[in-house]
Design brief:
single chain, 397 residues, alpha/beta, Rossmann fold, 2 domains, 6-stranded parallel sheet, binds adenosine-5'-diphosphate, binds magnesium ion
Length: 397
């Protein structure tokens, strides 16, 4: 990575203003944190800063407040959880920038931790308002961006503030960029990617960019349907995007011309309703009857995809193979997750995308993967070949 990290700067006695991604899921009824993965992922950076003589001022967004304070989206539960994880006090205040925030930040001693309020309570955050960036910059001596999951957004706390302080990457940011960026820029070959999920229109740019880099691209999930439609198959009531058929055709042609293997499902699990208890059947993709829809890849397809993955040295997976939320349509996703788990020690395996990560975790296979990305949107933009604004703004090595 060509960006400076917290390892490259002197931290002794400094106040580190750290953008973390504490955008954790909350239980609607109780407000409790249902998954603290993102808080745990930020701990190594915070520990490192504290161990090297810095004090730490943390900022994050949480949820989608309507540009004003929302008691349900305050960061207090996050502060409590972080305090448990760090085993030291975390001071929390109810403002992001304010005279109180400044006074509190300036009173910090090395080893102290302060958590600011949800950055998105301030309407200037998402506008990337320089006024807010300047206000934030007064709270620290150096800026550390560890919020990979928010790095695709150019907001005041993720991008703007980096122009007012020496700005470096945290350890999570570094690890995410090294894993995803490393695989994309200099993969060990064969390099195979698996793309799934509901809609092709969400991921056209991803597929386009990946086709320039990979040896093979395997397509599953609802998005495969539009590729199948492009080949003239009748798909019954399957989810299809007719407006993307031409794009699907051109991606298939593009793969052919460039000698890339673009694999599509040959069979599918179909259902007579979009429901967990629907009647199901296994059919070849050219025989989906009226009134039925494809909800998972079939056993023949799984066989082909497993074979394509068997010798891979680098694999990136984004998007489930079927409606894995319903057990009847989870087998394709489970089989691919297992195939990747079987590559442990043989290949670099990277999972990006909120639902794919959830699927792998649900299946208990997360610790068999080389890297699980904490940022769905940000990892997609990297796969599209875009530069992330939150990364671009950091100091070069
Ligand atoms: P990710 O979050 O990993 O990037 P997406 O958000 O693109 O993945 O897609 C995930 C969703 O796609 C899941 O909710 C899943 O149910 C849905 N999906 C997968 N296959 C199908 C299908 N054949 N028909 C309809 N929806 C599907
Ligand atoms: Mg998703």
């Amino acid at each position: 990575m060509n960006k400076k990290t917290i390892r490259d700067i002197d931290l002794q006695g400094k106040r580190a203003l750290v953008r973390v991604d504490f955008n954790v899921p909350l239980d609607k009824a109780t407000g409790q944190i249902t998954d603290d993965t993102r808080i745990r992922a930020a701990v190594p950076t915070i520990q490192y800063l504290l161990e090297h003589g810095a004090s730490v001022v943390l900022m994050s967004h949480l949820g989608r407040p309507k540009k004003q304070a929302d008691d349900k989206l305050r960061l207090d539960p996050v502060g409590h959880r972080l305090q448990e994880l760090l085993g030291r006090p975390v001071q929390k205040i109810n403002t992001t920038t304010s005279p109180e925030a400044e006074a509190t930040a300036h009173a910090l001693k090395p080893g102290d931790v302060l958590l600011l309020e949800n950055t998105r309570f301030d309407p200037r955050e998402e506008q990337n308002d320089p006024g807010l960036s300047e206000d934030l910059a007064r709270l620290g001596d150096v800026y550390v961006n560890d919020a990979f999951g928010a790095a695709h957004r150019a907001h005041a706390s993720t991008e703007g503030v980096a122009h007012y302080l020496p700005a470096v990457a945290g350890l999570l940011m570094e690890a995410e960029l090294a894993a995803l960026g490393g695989a994309l820029d200099h993969p060990e070959r064969p390099f195979v990617t698996i793309i799934g999920g509901a809609k092709i229109s969400d991921k056209i740019n991803v597929i386009e960019n990946l086709l320039t880099k990979v040896d093979a691209l395997l397509i599953g999930g609802g998005m495969a349907n539009t590729f199948l439609l492009a080949q003239g198959y009748q798909l019954g009531d399957s989810l299809v995007e007719p407006e993307s058929v031409d794009m699907a055709k051109s991606l298939i042609d593009n793969a052919h011309t460039n000698g890339k293997h673009l694999l599509l499902p040959v069979d599918a699990i179909i259902a007579d309703a979009f429901a967990p208890d629907a009647n199901t059947n296994i059919v070849s993709v050219n025989t989906v009857p009226q009134g039925w829809r494809i909800l998972d890849i079939g056993p023949e397809t799984i066989k082909h995809y497993k074979a394509a993955l068997a010798g891979a040295k680098t694999v990136i997976w984004n998007g489930p193979m079927g409606v894995f939320e319903m057990p009847a349509f989870a087998e394709g996703t489970r089989a691919i997750a297992q195939a990747l788990a079987d590559l442990q020690t043989k290949a670099t395996t990277i999972i990006g995308g909120g639902d794919s990560v959830a699927a792998v975790e649900q299946m208990g296979l997360a610790d068999k993967m080389s890297h699980i990305s904490t940022g769905g949107g940000a990892s997609l933009e990297l796969l599209e070949g875009k530069e992330l604004p939150g990364v671009a703004a950091l100091q070069d090595k």
